């Protein structure tokens, strides 16, 4: 009886996409809920909506902080 073909394990693992909640972003930035939603509304901080839940990718928070640091350094 023939054995099933073996497949090579995938060597490229997809990077895990960490999604943060608004309260988690509030804690990391030490800002209030309204301030975080203002950043989301203005497009300064990227997010996705899953159903009724708003989630912020961790890389979007990092990009936001990096951009703000660059703006502060240029001023």
Your description of this structure?
- This protein is α+β, with helices and mostly antiparallel strands and 75 residues long.
- The chain has one domain.
- 47% of the residues lie in helices and 13% in strands.
- A three-stranded antiparallel sheet has the order 1-3-2.
- Helix 1 crosses helix 2.
- The protein is globular, with a radius of gyration of 19 Å.
- The termini are far apart.
- The mean pLDDT is 87.
- InterPro entries: HTH_17 (IPR041657), SinI_DNA-bd (IPR010093).
- Keywords: DNA-binding.
- This is DNA-binding protein.
- Pfam families: HTH_17 (PF12728).
Into how many domains do the coordinates divide?
Answer: 1
Percent of residues in beta strands? 5-15%
Helix-strand category: alpha+beta
Number of helices: 3
For the secondary structure, the number of strands is: 3
| Percentage of residues in helical conformation | 40-55%
The N- and C-terminal alpha carbons lie at a distance of 74 Å
Task: Tell me, briefly, the overall form.
Answer: globular
Mean pLDDT: 87
Largest pleated sheet: 3 strands, antiparallel
Roughly how many Å is the radius of gyration?
19 Å
Order of helices and strands: EHHEEH
Which spans have pLDDT < 50 for at least 5 consecutive residues?
A: none
The main sheet orders its strands as 1-3-2
InterPro entries: HTH_17, SinI_DNA-bd
Keywords: DNA-binding
Protein name: DNA-binding protein
GO molecular function: DNA binding
